[in-house]
Design goal:
flat; 66 residues
């Protein structure tokens, strides 16, 4: 399998699964600051619901009882 960074040297990689900002910067991953967009969205409405897509296997997981 080809490494995208060597196949396309002018392209940068997305930091999928990387949790630390320092690693994103040090390894040259793409970073897009959306702070301003979040502030504008918050100013537009009193209530905002942000949902995240669930994995396809999520519906097959058994429910946990607490």
């Amino acid at each position: 399998m080809n490494n995208p960074s060597t196949s396309y040297p002018d392209r940068r990689r997305y930091p999928v699964g990387i949790q630390t900002f320092s690693e994103i910067i040090e390894k040259g991953y793409v970073y897009i600051d959306k702070t301003d967009l979040m502030w504008r969205m918050q100013q537009m409405s009193k209530y905002i619901f942000l949902s995240r897509p669930r994995p396809t296997w999520w519906s097959s997981c058994p429910t946990r009882s607490t």
